[in-house]
């Protein structure tokens, strides 16, 4: 399904998606006018966690690591705030963990880990 939010995120991609087997990488730069900043927080916009998860889902979809929306987010850790105009590098890796298929997603700004989580389906 292509929502206005997903469409706007697709316009915020920078560079080509890189697919290497079970690993997919893509970068985003979200302008201050990005719809996802609305209300989060007035005067000090930061990328909400739900947008970070959606960006990782889009990257996993682009690399054909998943064919449907994940049903759960596990092991989520948010280490730093993501701000407008920062280049956010996303890496998604498909792996099996204790017999369970997961997408291991990490978001970086430069060399700094911003967040990490698993996308899973029940």
What do these coordinates show?
The protein is of the alpha+beta class. It has a single domain, classed as Hotdog Thioesterase (Thiol Ester Dehydrase, Chain A), CATH 3.10.129.10. Helices cover 18% and strands 43% of the residues. Strands 1-2-4-5-6-3 form a six-stranded antiparallel beta sheet. Strand 1 and strand 2 form a beta hairpin. The mean pLDDT is 94.
The main β sheet shows up as: 6 strands, antiparallel
- Total number of domains: 1
Per CATH, the superfamily is Hotdog Thioesterase
Q: What structural class results from the helix and strand content? A: alpha+beta
Q: Per DSSP, what share of the residues sits in E-state strands of 2 or more residues?
A: 35-45%
Stretches where pLDDT is under 50 for at least 5 consecutive residues are none
Number of helices: 2
Give the CA-based shape: globular
Lateral arrangement of strands in the main beta sheet: 1-2-4-5-6-3
* Helical residues, percent: 10-25%
- Roughly how many Å apart are the termini? 20 Å
DSSP strand count: 6
CATH architecture name: Roll
| CATH fold topology | Thiol Ester Dehydrase, Chain A
Q: Rg to the nearest angstrom?
A: 14 Å
Q: What is the CATH class name?
A: Alpha Beta
Quaternary structure type: single chain
């Amino acid at each position: 399904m292509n929502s206005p939010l997903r469409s706007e995120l697709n316009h915020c991609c920078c560079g080509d998606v890189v697919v290497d087997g079970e690993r997919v990488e893509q970068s985003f730069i979200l302008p201050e006018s990005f719809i996802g900043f609305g209300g989060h927080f007035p005067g000090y916009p930061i990328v909400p966690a739900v947008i970070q998860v959606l960006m990782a889902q889009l990257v996993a979809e682009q690399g054909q690591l998943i064919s449907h929306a994940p049903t759960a987010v596990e092991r989520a850790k948010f280490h730093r705030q993501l701000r407008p105009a920062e280049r956010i590098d996303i890496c998604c890796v498909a792996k099996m963990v204790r017999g369970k298929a997961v997408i291991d997603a990490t978001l970086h700004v430069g060399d700094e880990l911003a967040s990490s989580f698993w996308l899973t389906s029940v």
